[in-house]
Amino acid sequence: MKENYCLRAALVCLGVLCHSQAFAAERRSHLRPSFHGHHEKGKEGQVLQRSKRGWVWNQFFVIEEYTGPDPVLVGRLHSDIDSGDGNIKYILSGEGAGTIFVIDDKSGNIHATKTLDREERAQYTLMAQAVDRDTNRPLEPPSEFIVKVQDINDNPPEFLHETYHANVPERSNVGTSVIQVTASDADDPTYGNSAKLVYSILEGQPYFSVEAQTGIIRTALPNMDREAKEEYHVVIQAKDMGGHMGGLSGTTKVTITLTDVNDNPPKFPQSVYQMSVSEAAVPGEEVGRVKAKDPDIGENGLVTYNIVDGDGMELFEITTDYETQEGVVKLKKPVDFETKRAYSLKVEAANVHIDPKFISNGPFKDTVTVKIAVEDADEPPMFLAPSYIHEVQENAAAGTVVGRVHAKDPDAANSPIRYSIDRHTDLDRFFTINPEDGFIKTTKPLDREETAWLNISVFAAEIHNRHQEAKVPVAIRVLDVNDNAPKFAAPYEGFICESDQTKPLSNQPIVTISADDKDDTANGPRFIFSLPPEIIHNPNFTVRDNRDNTAGVYARRGGFSRQKQDLYLLPIVISDGGIPPMSSTNTLTIKVCGCDVNGALLSCNAEAYILNAGLSTGALIAILACIVILLVIVVLFVTLRRQKKEPLIVFEEEDVRENIITYDDEGGGEEDTEAFDIATLQNPDGINGFIPRKDIKPEYQYMPRPGLRPAPNSVDVDDFINTRIQEADNDPTAPPYDSIQIYGYEGRGSVAGSLSSLESATTDSDLDYDYLQNWGPRFKKLADLYGSKDTFDDDS
């Protein structure tokens, strides 16, 4: 049995840097070959001991970033069967074999031909094998090993961001956390201190500090004031190798902004403000502005203003302009220079939002004195009253005094006043005014019933300055005078039933009447109703006053007859309660009407009464019967006219049978006079004595589908046939009684000849249809029918 050999790897000491011997010694210590054996029996039963390779390849190491002139020796592969005669060839395969790692196929030395970077790739997996140089036959199984790239400190720390921005409230306590900065190192954190980082602050002392291990930035000074300095620039350094000398470092900038807190109260820049206002100013007009300064910003700097004291609190007010943070002093009520010429106010400015942490810095408010001087102005005249109400009786003569308006100049000059009426308010010119004393008079009599109130406006202007004027409303009430007599409230009309003398009189009034008066209630009701003195003893009717502004009209007798008199006119006198009283005579119409036994009105027309007496009930019935007979005759006549317009084809419902007539007549030209008759299609039951079968009656009556109706005479034949076919196909109760008629006659003497192709297959033709063979399987049948004889023979 051929003996099996194992490869052995030996690492060559690398003379790279000052600690290369230690690397080589370490790598040798990893190669610990271990052998395991098992026993086999020989041919003679002898037990033979066989060596079996059982060791595992350890890792090879090569330092990164080597820049020497020669390739780096990574290690050496050697086989026990290699006697040094060059018959064994070493082969290397795997990651980077042939490009990064090369092997001397005779000696087994492995070199790295390129500079390696652990941050790009930390290890490579390779496969080594010894083969026969001549036959390339493997002398032992391939062995796998790993080459690890040994890290060096070649990467400086890098922060996640080039710059950081952070905020911290002003006046924060020492040690308040601001922000945490983090850096990373691409070197191997498991080997040495190449990736061990330490943070330090380069700029920003003594205001801030940084924790060396975590990178947390904290405040280092108390009571940092935003109003003194708002922004700080801090530089933080991260250094590897634990911060020791020789380590690499990286820096980042941190911008720290102090945020505002309400730690400053508002302050007025001066103790007294001087303002002035004209006495002509109107309420709401701005007088002046005050402003308290607060160095805080945002809501911490919001200030509100109030008037807390002063003799002008009732005349002035102050509001806050939040855009400019100013207090706006406005006029609340009009001021008068002649009454008071100066006012004093005490204005307070206070913060809206107060931070309890800094309440000891308070109070967060300030006060200031505002002095306001009233300026004299040429004021318009002032009426002694804001409005006037006067009264005048209606129908008063022109020139009657209605009343007076009075105005005066409030200025010290006391200019004379001139009055006038605004004619836009007195278009009918009912009034005039004295321009000097303001007395208002009428120009014509007034009617209260037309207008009870009149509203005008009066101007008062200074004689020396017409632009200074005032206006006052004047309401004039027209007092009522009893100048209208009462009248009927409505056009009343009474009805009385005709009766005989023996019938007792009714206690019910014929009609109840009331009155209406245009005058005021003082000159109107109570109304008194009576008959005129000359007919106070009227034999037919009487009037009874109900003492509630109504009255009832009653009949004094019975036996009224329309034939004697059908209409009565009754005069009634109505008086009002005015002083002096007014009265009017109104005429009431009373008609005599026919009534039934219950007293219900039937007719109040005398002609209708006579017509009813001359026309009997039988005559009326005869007239109505004649009218009905005439209507029946008209209806029958219209019905018969419609029946005559029914279609010619009419079948009984139980005898409906469909006949499909098919024809292939193409027409015979000009002399074709024996073609089918259209009547055959329209009445198929009459052709050749055909009679539809009636021996079988359908079990269910077929109802034609909606939309299918017999075709009229002028319908197209094709539509008629299709309609009948569709009805027959959809009728489940109709037996198959369809008949087929064939029209094969083409006619004689046609110049164009026949277009039929029925006999084309049996006649000789000069046409060549062999090209149909090339048209594919869809035209195979035509090719068989119209192809040449040779083609038929070939097919057979």
UniProtKB/TrEMBL annotation:
GO terms for cellular component: adherens junction; catenin complex. It is found in: Cell membrane. Residues 79-159, 160-268, 269-383, 384-488, 488-609 form the Cadherin domain. Residues 1-24 form the signal peptide. It is a single-pass type I membrane protein. One of its GO terms (molecular function) is calcium ion binding. The chain crosses the membrane at residues 619-640. Keywords: Calcium, Cell adhesion, Cell membrane, Glycoprotein, Membrane, Metal-binding, Repeat, Signal, Transmembrane, Transmembrane helix. Coiled coil: none annotated. The keyword Cell membrane applies. One of its GO terms (biological process) is cell morphogenesis. Cadherins are calcium-dependent cell adhesion proteins. PANTHER family: CADHERIN-11, CADHERIN-23. This is Cadherin-11. It comes from Vicugna pacos.
